[in-house]
From TrEMBL:
Protein name from the UniProt record: PLA2G15
Gene3D superfamilies: alpha/beta hydrolase
Origin species: Cordylochernes scorpioides
SUPFAM superfamilies: alpha/beta-Hydrolases
Record-linked InterPro entries: AB_hydrolase_fold, LACT/PDAT_acylTrfase
Length: 249
């Protein structure tokens, strides 16, 4: 039996108690009625959502032609703050947003949100809510496979020049990733090593973009191989070598 759950872009994990309850019931009933294991395949924000479900609490690769037109809309979406670069992976002096007058690192995100709308907004509170939710996340506690794309230009820094500052036209400085998610984020999966007894498999898929990850035939073949194979099997596919449990770098 195959079931697909799709999340709207604006939805954040701390707003999904009913969904979590329904998913838990679905998994438990499926296991009981079919007497088979359940394999959950998640993508992007959905992985954080499912990790929240597995944890102790209930807790866009899309092109924008004219950023200014939709900028105000995206700033009101809770999921936007949930995906912002904060936490241990981003705890560095690296500049993420640059203007002529001020630079912002991950430690300056609250200040950045205040500067975006100095007359008052709910932006800082939305970020704090996301930080609290993310802090609750633990390890999956189940055998896990992480695929991540590389080789695509992925935004790494935003530069705003001129008197308009943060409301002006942005220049994007790119790094490596899948076009949406930076390669640094795979360290989340590596961080589970040694913290759970179940194996963690990690596989780089070069040239596969964020959105293509859910339709790439080799990845799909690997997932089917993993889901239908022996209990200890790792994903395989024509272009994907046999995975070995990842080692923490």
């Amino acid at each position: 039996m195959r079931i697909q759950v799709t999340l709207e872009n604006g939805t954040c994990p701390d707003e999904m108690e009913k969904l979590f309850h329904n998913m838990q019931n679905l998994v438990e009933k499926t296991v009981k009625s079919k007497n088979e294991k359940v394999v959950v395949v998640c993508h992007s924000l959905g992985c954080s959502v499912f990790l929240t479900l597995l944890g102790p609490g209930i807790d866009f690769g899309q092109s924008i032609i004219q950023p200014k037109i939709v900028r105000e809309l995206f700033r009101t979406l809770p999921s936007f703050y949930y995906l912002m670069p904060f936490g241990k992976l981003w705890d560095t002096p690296e500049v993420l947003v640059q203007t002529d007058k001020k630079n912002y690192t991950s430690k300056d995100l609250l200040e950045l949100l205040v500067d975006l709308q100095p007359n008052g907004s709910n932006f800082p509170n939305m970020l704090l809510d996301a930080m609290i939710t993310r802090k609750k996340l633990g390890v999956p506690g189940v055998k896990t496979v992480c695929f991540y794309g590389t080789g695509s230009q992925t935004p790494a820094r935003l530069v705003y020049r001129g008197p308009e500052g943060l409301n002006g036209t942005q220049e994007v400085i790119y790094g490596d990733g899948d076009g949406t998610v930076n390669t640094r984020n795979i360290e989340v999966c590596r961080g589970w090593m040694g913290r759970q007894k179940q194996p963690v498999f990690i596989r780089e898929v070069r040239g596969v973009t964020h959105r293509a990850m859910v339709s790439d035939s080799n990845i799909i073949d690997a997932i089917y191989s993993f889901a239908s194979g022996p209990q200890a099997a790792a994903p395989t596919a024509p272009r994907l070598a046999m995975l070995k449990p990842a080692r923490k770098h």
